[in-house]
Write a structure and sequence with these properties.
It is a single chain. The protein is of the alpha+beta class. About 20% of the residues lie in helices and about 30% in strands. The protein has six helices and nine strands, in the order βββββββαββααααα. It has helices at about 100-105, 135, 150-160, 175-180, 200-210, 215; strands at about 5-15, 20-25, 35-40, 45-60, 65-75, 80-85, 95-100, 115-120, 125-130. The strands form two sheets. A six-stranded antiparallel β-barrel has the order 1-2-5-4-3-7. The termini are far apart. The mean pLDDT is about 85.
């Protein structure tokens, strides 16, 4: 380990947003973790990425090699701020290091945009994790989890912090009525009003005509 952190390998392949590395030494294998954040020096910047694949193959000398793939996330600019996207790619043979605490703080720093804190960073539980609400709500997304894992609380937290958004929340089980107070307009059977022209023929028939035989005929 040097002042840059633990060196785990070197760059073997550069292909778009994907970089493949070779583990240099056997003792470095324990530091290569799926989902781990790594740092690769490039010309004037430091590029960061996540390990998303681990595998082995046979090298030209017939010996087994341990390889890993890195999905590039972004880079640090001159003032050490982290920015998403990569403008300068690592070169072949460039060293690959495990990200240290200072690197994690840069990459997962709170963005300047509107955010909501929803947990902690997996690689360092002392760092808060944020969601950029404007970007999140402007795209398709899903909140998934097992029963009791906190899906409803997460949804309420995200929407409470997005007060300027126009969101229609379908709540058939009346779970969220108390979550938003006067921030939301609650529509239920007591105050729902629909214009008649909104209904098609079949729907108007069900609403206006009795189900009793003589009337329906």
């Amino acid at each position: 380990m040097d002042e840059m952190g633990i060196r785990i390998g070197h760059v073997a392949v550069v292909s778009g947003a994907l970089v493949s590395g070779v583990i240099d030494e056997e003792r470095a294998s324990s530091s290569v973790q799926f989902g781990g954040l790594v740092r690769v020096p490039a010309a004037g910047v430091e590029v960061f990425g996540l390990i998303n694949n681990l595998r082995t193959d046979t090298g030209p000398d017939g010996r087994e090699r341990r390889l890993f793939d890195i999905e590039l996330l972004g880079e640090t600019v001159q003032d050490s701020r982290f920015e998403r996207g990569v403008s300068i790619y690592p070169t072949l043979g460039a060293p690959i290091y495990v990200a240290i605490a200072g690197d994690l703080a840069k990459v997962y720093a709170r963005p300047e945009e509107d955010t909501v804190r929803f947990g902690t960073v997996h690689q360092d539980r002392s760092l808060p994790a944020f969601v950029m609400t404007d970007k999140l709500l402007s795209h398709h997304f899903a909140i998934l989890g097992t029963t009791g894992s906190g899906k409803s609380c997460a949804a309420a937290l995200i929407l409470q912090d997005h007060q300027n958004g126009h969101v229609i929340f379908l709540d058939p089980h009346n779970e969220y009525a108390q979550s938003f107070g006067d921030k939301a307009e609650l529509i239920d059977l007591t105050n729902l009003r629909l214009p008649y022209w909104l209904l098609n023929y079949e729907e108007a028939l069900e609403v206006l005509i009795s189900r009793e035989g003589p009337y329906r005929d």
